[in-house]
Amino acid sequence: MQTVIALDAMGSDRAPKPEIEGALAAARHYGVKVLLVGPEAQLKRELKNHPSASYLPIEIVNASQVITMDEKAAQAVRSKRDSSMRVGLRLVRDKKAIGFVTAGHTGAAMATAKMVMGALPGVDRPALAMVFPTSAAKPCILIDVGANVDSKPQNLAQFAIMGEMYSRSIFGTEKPTVGLLSIGEEETKGNELTRQAYALLKDLPLNFIGNVEGRDLYNGHVDVIVCDGFVGNVALKISEGLVEAVRYLLKESLKSTITSQVGALLSRRAFVDFGKRLDYSEYGGAPLLGLKGVAIVGHGASNNNAIKNAIRVAKQFAESGINQRIEQEFTSNRAEAAVVAAAAAGESWKED
Amino acid sequence: MQTVIALDAMGSDRAPKPEIEGALAAARHYGVKVLLVGPEAQLKRELKNHPSASYLPIEIVNASQVITMDEKAAQAVRSKRDSSMRVGLRLVRDKKAIGFVTAGHTGAAMATAKMVMGALPGVDRPALAMVFPTSAAKPCILIDVGANVDSKPQNLAQFAIMGEMYSRSIFGTEKPTVGLLSIGEEETKGNELTRQAYALLKDLPLNFIGNVEGRDLYNGHVDVIVCDGFVGNVALKISEGLVEAVRYLLKESLKSTITSQVGALLSRRAFVDFGKRLDYSEYGGAPLLGLKGVAIVGHGASNNNAIKNAIRVAKQFAESGINQRIEQEFTSNRAEAAVVAAAAAGESWKED
User: Fold this and answer.
1) Among A21, A162, B128, B144, which residue's Cβ finds the most Cβ atoms within 10 Å?
2) Is B135 on the interface with A (CB under 8 A)?
3) What residues have CB less than 8 Å from B75, skipping those under 6 apart?
4) Are strands A295-297 and A286-289 parallel, antiparallel or unpaired?
5) Looking at domain A4-125+281-324, does it have CATH number 2.40.110.10?
6) pTM of the predicted model, to two decimals?
7) Is the pLDDT of residue A248 over 80?
8) Interface test with chain B among A69, A196, A230, by most B beta carbons within 10 Å
9) Percentage of chain A with pLDDT > 90?
């Protein structure tokens, strides 16, 4: 049976163009069938510009509403019952697709996914995990990068378990190291949240290496870094901004002398390589972990390449069975340890 | 009268070598006198390796204790009454020097400075302000980058006033724009702290442009960005880590083909330019704003160039009279507005 992915055709800032082009590319390259979810008439019109759509496995599923970036998540989820997000997530819940991809509103995606698919038993809050390139050969997973703000210590403990499983399932890391993002390596450094989370994390049966700092995101010293979603999202956006600035400054520097212009020309290929390794669109979207189903959230500024890669990530996640493994994890002794640790810290494990 | 700067000779990770070399360079290039504060015997021994010390205005001031990076700030401040930090800050309080520089423990520097010098009236918590290079012609000030964690909304309002004054006093920006670091531009986006701080900030007589995102730190869209010190420190360390990774990857990419090796050779000069613009040691240390005196905190990994530049920053700060201007600001109608706003938000202005 063909792998089917439901794609929110109206998510990105320039939707539905990148979505349609990304879907066509994914159908061509990965042999997946893509369900384009959004206003049927508009999508039909757009598809007419792409002759390949007639022979590739692309189908439109109608959804009359669209959640925009400036809406409040909770309100949008309540009021727009026929949004492209909600319809797309229902397709996964109803087994019409094995995964969902959106480049839309992260908060709305998280809230809708939790409502439509439900969270895995033992998971209070699903979280967004993002893969960062490092100067070492292996990537680093940062969790959460924006699905939750004002997280509780037990949320961070759950993020750690999910992130560690991600590293094992998708990258095959044997005993992934897990670090807590803080502002100093010593246990006492950090804020109230990290100090309480530290106490929980060190009692979990994970390869917990203690506090790590921002610089460790890029040096390959740790496989999984755990943080609150506000901090993680700032980390992500700071990185994007810096990469943009580096590119700009590099271009500018290379313009400054004739000698370096020649150099620039000759080393263009090297820059393309370099750019690719730091381009988030190459890594595809970020999975929402802890749900009863696969949901991948892409960047609002996604281009067709990013959408194509997010579809690849959705396929890979569904095939890896990571959700089933996270569920097992939470019903095994690890979860028990987490519950015990949380209780010992005077925190209730279930929070909402 | 000669400008005198007190330098914690024992602050950096490789102290006192970078401190001594940085002090000599600063004395030579900026015409300042440097008081090297630390264990006299050790410093004397080290100075013997530098013949120029005999004719440059360098003096040793004895301090028998050193606060190390792994100590708890509060405890170190209480127990080490003769630390190089404390003795150095006393020199400023007693008008023996116009500014203090350390590359040591940020938390200890903040706590000691607050105790020895005192905070300016109206300032609950001094904050560390850091200048970031942007792809535009002007820099961006991020405040706080690590002096405070678990900040209250009124702390962020005070950081905004101090940061704005920094931008005006040191960079001569006329009406600096001030943004609140969050994870979405809309007022409703963010966490509890940012939503409450937003309400205070919009009532202050500042050029407040609302929420900004991590990427705005590097694109020159805003002059001053306000955040809690945990978030700001993560932002700083993430940036440092990414710059390191970029340098490494670039070097690696450029090695990969003969063509790009030639390119690398030709464009070496351009890379040096580029590196300098992103090298924090070129920008010197970060000032602790809101104190009755000038205190500059450098990076623990400071080299002699960073120390030299931190001394330059201390001199520039002392000469700008920024503390006096911040004090005026807090006793003028602006501060009144802040108090009113804080009261309206149901927060007590004075917190500790």
Assistant:
1) B144
2) yes
3) none
4) antiparallel
5) no
6) 0.88
7) no
8) A230
9) 66
